[in-house]
Amino acid sequence: MRKSNEPTANQNERSLDNERIEEYVQQFKPALLAFFSRRTTHSEIAQDLVQDVFMRLLRRKKSGEIEHPAAYIMQTASSVWNDFLRTKQRRHEDMQEEFDEFSHSPGGISPEREYIGREAVNIILSVLSKLPTRTQDIYLLCRFDGFKRHEAAKRMGISVSAIDKHLMIATKKVGQIFGEYNE
């Protein structure tokens, strides 16, 4: 018969409980903040990414003890960073500007410049309307929507070289029109 003070087999196994996770937070949070702070200039983003690492750790809770916690946590941090970059790229966040009153004020763009920009877009759309539908779609995906050639190829179900050929045809036509306007 087992004495009540002796640990059971389940108590001997060191599971990943809340107390252990709290220890990991205390132990690894400064290193994770440093890791992410070297990669981004925004401290809020670094803090969010640290939190993501520990959220993944919480989701892993039922899997048992982590044999090498430092290695596991830093590998998780690397994965979190890569996921962050993929998401950022997918959302085109680097292409977005932060709002400042000077550059975004109504007086920043003259009515003439706005008119010229609209006319240029109308000319491009007019040129594209004379091209095959697939060429139009590919040009708009890559040039207006910001898709990479391989992404457009996957979406359209064709090869990257076919995307290149369609882009070359459309770009040549658009260039011819603007070449005539610039002379």
Mean pLDDT: 80
Separate helix tally:
9
The CATH topology annotation of the largest domain reads as Rna Polymerase Sigma Factor, Chain: A
Helix content: over 70%
SS content category:
mainly alpha
Distance between the termini: 99 Å
Low-confidence parts:
1-14
Shape: elongated
Structural domain tally: 2
User: Based on the structure given, which CATH architecture of the largest domain is correct?
Assistant: Orthogonal Bundle
Quote the beta fraction: under 5%
CATH class of the largest domain: Mainly Alpha
Largest sheet, in brief, is: none
- Count of β-strands: 0
Strand and helix order: HHHHHHHHH
Radius of gyration: 27 Å
Features:
single chain, 183 residues, Rna Polymerase Sigma Factor, Chain: A, 2 domains, 9 helices, 0% strand
